[in-house]
Amino acid sequence: TNVARCGFAPISSVESGAHTDLMESFFLSETVKYLYLTFSDAAPHLIDYYILSTEGHLLPVVRPDSADAEAREQRAYDEATGSIP
Questions:
Q1: Torsion 41-47-48-50 (CA) sign
Q2: Cβ(56)–Cβ(32) under 8 Å?
Q3: Which residue pairs, CB below 8 angstroms and at least 24 apart, start in 21-28?
């Protein structure tokens, strides 16, 4: 990708350096966001609270209470082993 008059565009010919008249929609939503998070000072703090999806969306991390997590694990075990009364 290279900077063209319209923004960022792919190079259509390596020999001439000509650009296509196209900027993919994912470029800003995904690629630039990944670059920002890679080089941002805020990125180390964000990973504690968000997961970056493959589509470039920040999804909040839901951390269950440890007691809730243990209860869910026990229920899943009980269901898997058939030991539910």
A1: positive
A2: no
A3: 26/56, 27/1
As given in the structure block, the two tokens for residue 36 are 């920002």
CA distance 11 to 16: 9
Residue 25 CA, chain-centre distance (Å), reads 16
**pLDDT at residue 80, rounded to an integer:** 74
- All residue ranges of the chain with pLDDT < 50 are 4
Taking the complete model, does pTM exceed 0.85, yes or no? no
The string of DSSP letters for the chain reads -EEETTEEE-BS-TTT-PBPS---HHIIIIIIHHHHHHH-TTHHHHTTTEEE-TTS-EEE-----HHHHHHHHHHHHHHHHT---
User: Residue 26 half-sphere exposure, CB side, CA atoms within 13 Å?
Assistant: 9
